[in-house]
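go over whats below:
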Amino acid sequence: MAGSKGSRSAQLRDSLVLGLALFAMFFGAGNLIFPPMLGLESGEVWPVGLIGFLLTDVVLACVGIYAVNAAGGAVESIDAALGNKPGLVLSGAAVVCLGVLFAMPRTAATTYEMSIVPYLGPYVGLLPFSVVFFAIVFLLAMRESRIMDIIGRFFTPTLVAGVLLLVVVGIVVPLGAPGASQSPTVFQDGVRAGYQTMDVLGVVSFSLVLMDSIRAYGYHERRSQLSMVAVASLVAVALLTVLYGGLTYLGATAQEQGAGLPQGQLIVAITYDLLGEAGVVVLGVVVALACVTTAVALVGSTAAYFSKVSGGRLPYRWLLAADCVVGVVICNFGLDGIVGIADPVLGAVCPPLVTVIVLLLFHRRIRSRRIYQGAALAALASAVVIELSLYDALPFSLAWLPLYDVGFAWVPFAALGGVAGWAVGKARGVQAA
């Protein structure tokens, strides 16, 4: 086992292994639905949509992994930047979105769309399926067993191999030529699809797991740890870019076959056309087991988080049961329903977190906590107003705002908020903790 004094080759090897692990954490089965639909709607300009998607999903998430560790640790860096209570609110919002409201119930809805509907849809309703799904999730999360380790280790590589095969076949024998774009805001569509993966919300928890793994490998020197985080993040970026790029391209070539299909069934239709019935069966089984694994991880980590925050006053098993009940209720909105509900919420929650992550890259130069607080607050406030505008809840349009068409209209406000925070901090002599 390599230590802090290990050779560079050993450190590089360990970094590559950790990069594969980080990639597996980010590449959830539930995320398969977004790139193909983005490609289908983007048509011949699918690379533009892909860039927006990769920016808010892959790049920001992996940059965030490095930023929070470089700034002192996943939880510590955000608390130091915002203060304990604001940091708790932001981290708590990320946990709720991931493990309660959206990502967790979406695993069940995705399984239903991709594994049940193609074969048992007329006979098995979403409600009974969701009850059985979350009963299994509860039992596995309540008592961790060897079966979860087997599923996690075997089916994630199988899922990746299956997607790679799908992409290669789709490139060699394309379903068709990408047609005209169906959207006037392709880049913005990619940005919002990236938010929907919620990978950026997992930065804190994923950072903790990655750093624990690095220490377990025997690396305790700070410089070696950050070097390994950087290499692992780059490996994850490269692999995610290849897979998501391929899936987006497949969607762009399937505009005729995928017309009118919901997101979950689009990838099923593409798989059927490229790999036949056997491919659909294998995809359905692997996605189902991978989604169960993801759901167990989400409900388990969420229950553990709130039990810890409450000082143990809220028992783990009660929280686990409550989360699974919520999962059943929200799952029955259906996959497209969950995505639709999540869209404006994530459009408001992600900007302040992204703002803090980016600022943490410059933590050595930022001396006032007010800069983080002002920038995050302005990002949140402007994002909420922009979301209201996007959903026609305001009597006026904000399309004139800078960067509105690319989905980053909140960025100038975040910058102004940071400047205002700096001025307030300088006047009051408030320094970063």
